[in-house]
User: Fold this.
Amino acid sequence: MEVQNSDLEQLYAGTFKSIEAGTIMTGKVISKKADAIVVDIGYKSEGFIPIEDFTPDELKELKEGSDIEVLIASIRDSEGTITLSKSRAKILKTQKMLQQSFDEGAIIDGKIVERTKGGFFVDIGGVKAFLPGSHYDVKPLRSSDEVVGQQCRFKVLKLNNKLNNVIVSRRAVIEEEKKVKKSQTLSNIKEGAVVTGIVKNVTDYGVFIDLGEIDGLLHISDISWGRINHPADYFNVGDEVQVLILKYDQESEKVTLGYKQKKSDPWLDIETRYAEGKTVSGRVVGITDYGAFIELEEGVEGLVHVSELDWSARPGHPSKYLEKGDTVDVAVLKIENNQRRISLGIKQLKPKPWELVAERYAVGQTVTGKVRTITDFGVFVGMPEGIDALIHISDIFWTKHIKHPSEVFKLRQKIDAVVLSLEPEKKKMLLGVKQLKPDPWTTEIPQRFKVGSDVSCKVLRVSEYGLFVEIEESVEGLVYASEIVKGADESYVEGTLIQARIIKLDFEQRKIGLSMIAALDTRRRDEQQEQ
Assistant:
């Protein structure tokens, strides 16, 4: 028996005293038979549901005493037989629900059970409805693999009496929910109000926050009172955050948000907390070539310039002193409230190096340092206290003359030296290397060299004053220009070996004067005597 729309008027019309075919009512399972299920419907005789009306799973779950909704399919009083239908009761009930959804826009539940061309099939109370792919969501469907099996809510778009052309939409439900949610959100948006939202997107210039079907922009400049490198340092997609409504344009529905404004500007009373000269603690949040940024509190950062890291005249890169994340003590040097800048110093918390030098060193003391700079006139040696001491070129050798200190020293070379003079108040310290050994001009040279002695020499350089020569073991002398043997076959260049006679010894001036002519005359005289 086919139930038409007219049957809808009879739904739930049955009573326990009189029943009619087409009535839907609730009965109680009495027993299970091989070919039917016996149900008590409160009539003078029981009803029977054909066993074919059940799926195997439904039969397995069906218990005696269970309530079951059925439709009166036929009544045969002469035989006392009432035939019931569970499936037709379900279909009639579903038909009413679908009709109500179609007429009133009511929402119904269903399960997406199958994928088909152009969309999906949805099971709604035993009725198969069609869900177009474009009506699954408000956004394009990227993959349908996870759609089948979902329990969703729908609205009926199209319906015929035979229920063989039912079209439903999930998108319509979503759009309605979004519309309601947006309306609720807009009613709560007022400038100055604090609202909760979800981070939707993070960009270089700010963060988009979903406030409830309407997005607001939190600009990077409104995230923190302090310096900020990127919004991603503060927010991630999916974060729930509380923000302040700074501005709302009803016409364009544009919402401008603030985050830092939830707290008062820490720079308003900065001088009451960070007086100049005060020592405070902070965290290193950035390192550059010109210094390090220190966060003193949320929204307040100061700069330690590279020149304020160390007392050294040439401090190294800030990364040699600090690492990002370090907690350090700093001195407040200067506050520029209008510029929102604080100058900080670290070296001010350390003893001044020249004060340490005055305490630790004395003239005549042997010290150790590393060559930091090489110049034409000497080398600067870095001391552990951070100051540079000078070794003049004249204090490298007692007897040997060099053209440039680089002939002897290399950068970063570790050397020992003797303190020659110390003037902390003038920031001067002179060292000597030759002073590590006794002065040969007062010990060895007077014993080894005598006026009138002939010696072998090597030419070091030629000048207008004569030939500067090395006599032996780095002892230098000068062959006066007037005492040089001159001839057509004589040529003197660096490295030339010659014979000369010592004609002058000035120990006070540390000079040895030589004569090639005197030595040559002696050789000639000796040769004549031998003949």
Observations:
- The helical segments are 56-61, 86-104, 171-188, 270-273, 353-360, 445-448, 516-530.
- The longest strand covers residues 67-76.
- Residues 189-262 form a domain with the OB fold (Dihydrolipoamide Acetyltransferase, E2P) fold (CATH 2.40.50.140).
- The radius of gyration is 52 Å.
